[in-house]
Amino acid sequence: MISHKSIKEILTLLVDLHDLNESELSRNSKVSQPTIHRLLSGATPDPRMSTLKLLAKYFQVTIGQLVGVEPLPCNEAKPHAKHLIRLPLISWEQAHQWQHLTVSELSV
Q: I need a labelling partner for 103 at 20 to 30 A (CA). Which of 66, 67, 83, 85 fits?
C-alpha cells in the first residue's frame, strides 16, 4: 500500500509504470510539459485542482491517490508486476518434443 507520499513521488512512480516521458505524459494528459516537469522535479508541490483532475483521469486514479492521502490500487503499487508473464514449466522429455505438445499438456 502506497500512501502519504508527495505528488512528485507518486507521479514519478506512475510515469515509470506507464513507461512515459514528460512529453508523452503532457500530450496524453493535456497538462502542459512545463507543468509536468515542475511536478516531477518537486518545484510544484501543490498543483492546481485542474491539473490534478487531468492527471488523475489519465492514470485512472483518484485525486486522493495522486496526492498521496489514499493508497494506490494494488496493480499500481507494484511497479514490476505489470511486466511479469507466466511461462510453462516443462520436463526435458517435453522440451525434446516441444513441437508436438499442446497447451493442456504443459504445467503452469
A: 83
